[in-house]
Design goal:
Layout lengths: L1 H4 L3 H8 L5 H19 L6 H10 L6 H11 L38 E11 L2 E10 L5 E7 L4 H15 L7 E5 L3 H4 L1 H9 L2 E5 L9 H13 L9 H16 L13 H10 L2
Parallel strand pairs: 1-4, 4-5
Antiparallel strand pairs: 1-2, 2-3
Length: about 270
Amino acid sequence: MCSALGISRQAYHAWKSRRPSERHLRHERLRLHIRQMHEASNGSYGSPRLTHALRREGEVISRKTVERIMQVAGIRANVKRRFRPTTDSSKTLVPAANLLQRSFDVHRPDKVWVSDFTELPCRNGKAYAVAIMDLCSRRILGMVVSHSMQTRTLLKAFDDACRVRRRLPPEPIIFHSDRGSQYNADLFRTELAKRNFIQSMSNKGNCYDNATMESFWARMKTELGRPLLFDDLRDARSTVYRWTHLFYNRQRIHSSINNMTPVQFEQQLFSQI
């Protein structure tokens, strides 16, 4: 073989016994760690978030290096799909005015909460989830998965969100949603007023007015894997709760909040108050 390659036997054995370079060993270590981080994020982290996560651990690395390692290892982030709105009660009920007006850049927690429902396909039918998010930190304060989209499902999520906060600010909080009948129900509107919230609703048929929540649902469904199909309500509930409260709120970094997790970002903001 050596003669066929045109090299001496000594040169071949020297090459074979040569130790891997420091650069090669580092890239191999990074490849394994990047794969672990990618899998821990349910395939959601691309090179920007992986780069920030590595730097937070003290790794000196560029985004180009991360991209190159991912490409060689065949690691790719999931791409989220567009999501369609669920309900619209504007034909039968008078909706609240759109106070948010797509002003998604909020600098203080508990200034604006946003909410939305989504469908979750199951083998034996459908389940439904409703989430309530603090627009400043992107933290999910309330999440309920149920067999129905009734107002009581929304009320449970709202009560959970208020319990997370324990003490709400004296200033009114804007509560923004689409025009779904659950949000327009007298029971829910009464509860909002009782807790010093001001209601706001998207314009008719315009999902961009609640883009942050639409994006959250699309991201969740992408990161949980495709095709998304739960065994039953119990499976949907445990999977969504685990992803939301253990991963999204506490582990998933967001570029819109200085590459922190929602809980970390809130802790930083509350410490400054």
